[in-house]
């Protein structure tokens, strides 16, 4: 929680308590995985489910799987209404690990039971478990989001 | 475009051409800025507009502004329908620069005209210009997203 002060700089009064962050995470199905790869903080939309506080992601082989395994990653979920210019966002920081046969049967079963989507027939996804160690959330207040009518902005 | 092959590993047939990516970027108002800070690829939802191919972001002081200035950043925009399990996502890689009085009046005017939201009364946002040097997009195909009914998944 060493960076709590930094987070507060942005929105001191709109912070969401940690347990409410986890409740909000359970309300959505699509989030965005952040991984450092190719010299950039890459962002990938992914399906996910929850195994208690662990985020379970199903993904295809490639950049994000390679970069996420045993690395510092983030996971962002939000629900923002551009008409009413309000909503929330939750950012999880943690470590990700691919689930393989080396894991215990119970953990594999819990991972598969986490509510992530089945893929199209013939697809064989990989499973990632993202163990959070820092979770922050904030309410998006009206005025921070784009106007419903006026497409222009001036300082 | 040196990492085009890596991108293709994930979705060979669902790539979106670059000009279509820019068209899609102009259809949305909220995206997610990725910045490397505090040892993580942090992800922040932000308002944005477009000045031709430059992404204009208005933000408050804090972590993301400090980390984004003159750094490798990403910007992700998507539109994903969890019911129909389809949509698209675009990922921009580029460099960000804060717009200050040191910039020419024409550039400042174009930045302010880019269609980003005004903030709540009394707020004074900062402006970032994100200059893309690599843009990729892909269609999300049915089967990659969570099921509308069945909440469970098995390999």
TrEMBL record, chains A, B:
Pfam families: Pyridox_ox_2. This is Nitroimidazol reductase NimA, pyridoxamine 5'-phosphate oxidase superfamily. InterPro entries: Pyridox_Oxase-rel (IPR024747), Split_barrel_FMN-bd (IPR012349).
